[in-house]
Design brief:
heterodimer; A: 236 residues; mainly alpha; 2 domains; 2 strands; B: 99 residues; globular
């Protein structure tokens, strides 16, 4: 029972890691306005999926041939199909995650005719700015990526990276962003409720841009400050 | 035990030889299943008798004809495969009758 639990946790962990990797590739694609990054990742995932499918099948076939007759019968009648289906189902999310991001990036228009437009009042004074869809997406992606790399930079502190595996270096900045976003999002949405009578702006992306922008600049100032402070106090 | 193995070899050899003729698609589906089941059974039996070389050859044939992850080839490509596989089954059948 304990083994199954460990395998399940390991599987979910790897799946989550893969999701973060795909998300980073997707976000970088949006920032660079180049879909090839996430497309390449999806193609690689598709190829690995196909190759693994064949390898697993060959391994199951090998088990069928090299064991006793009862085992052979079981594998031939049900085992080969059953195990193949189970392994395929387990592999499927790894191919579906990049495929989902590929669909998302295909829906995006990187070449907006209008990137920004100013709203003028009767006297011709600028009262607001409307941004194009791709401009908003790029800003959102830029701040996310910037914040992610700043969280990644926090591993410069030995105390931060103590006992961490290589995988944690990918996952931890992401979870850092998620928890910070939840915390700041709660405060900001309450502030909005009091000031504008609504928790979120009409475009939810603007909400996240504001939070990640704050996080980005906060960390940009906070981390170097902490670094200098730790050197000065000999705690580095 | 030798006789049934010989019979299976001959039956599979004949089925593969017949595949050269233009049969309806259903025949080839049946052939896939028959060669896969028969081939893997023979490979299993040969592996148990420690005839590893022939077991590997038959396993390869069984995998080539397997219906789960089918190998799609043109009719022209299947022609020599059917002929060679048929020859192998006849040869193994002959070998098992000699033992």
């Amino acid at each position: 029972m304990e083994v199954i639990l460990y395998i399940t946790f390991a599987y979910i962990g790897i799946l989550f890691l893969w999701f973060v990797v795909c998300l980073l590739a997707f976000v970088t694609s949006v920032v660079l306005k180049r879909a090839f990054l996430i497309n390449s990742l999806a193609n690689i995932a598709g190829t690995v999926y196909g190759v693994l499918q064949v390898i697993i099948y060959l391994y199951l076939f090998f088990i069928m041939i090299t064991n006793g007759f009862l085992w052979f019968l079981f594998m031939l009648i049900i085992g080969l199909t059953l195990f193949n289906v189970i392994f395929n189902l387990l592999q499927l999310p790894f191919a579906l995650i990049p495929a989902f991001f590929v669909v998302k990036i295909e829906e995006m228009d990187f070449d907006d005719k209008v990137t920004t437009a100013e709203i003028l009042d009767d006297k011709g004074k600028v009262v607001g700015v409307i941004e194009g869809d791709s401009t908003i997406n790029r800003r959102l992606a830029k701040y996310f990526l910037g914040t992610y790399f700043l969280y990644l930079a926090s591993f410069i502190f030995p105390a931060e990276r103590e006992g961490l595996s290589v995988f944690s270096f990918i996952i931890k900045p992401f979870t850092g962003i998620v928890f910070s976003t939840i915390f700041l999002g709660l405060i900001y949405s309450l502030f909005r409720k009091i000031k504008y009578k609504s928790f979120f702006p009409e475009d939810k992306r603007i909400f996240f841009i504001k939070i990640w922008k704050f996080l980005f600049f906060f960390n940009l100032i906070f981390f170097p400050l902490l670094f200098v402070l730790s050197i000065m106090t000999n705690t580095y | 035990m030798k006789e049934p193995l010989k019979i299976i070899n001959i039956v599979l050899g004949v089925l593969l030889l017949l595949a050269i003729l233009p049969f309806p698609y259903g025949y080839y589906t049946f052939l896939r299943l028959a060669v896969f089941i028969g081939g893997s059974f023979l490979a299993h039996q040969l592996y148990q008798r420690e005839s590893i070389g022939w077991a590997v050859v038959l396993a390869c044939i069984a995998i080539l004809f397997n219906p789960l992850i089918p190998v799609y080839l043109s009719r022209e490509a299947w022609f020599p495969i059917d002929l060679v596989s048929s020859g192998i089954f006849f040869y193994i059948g002959k070998l098992s009758s000699k033992e």
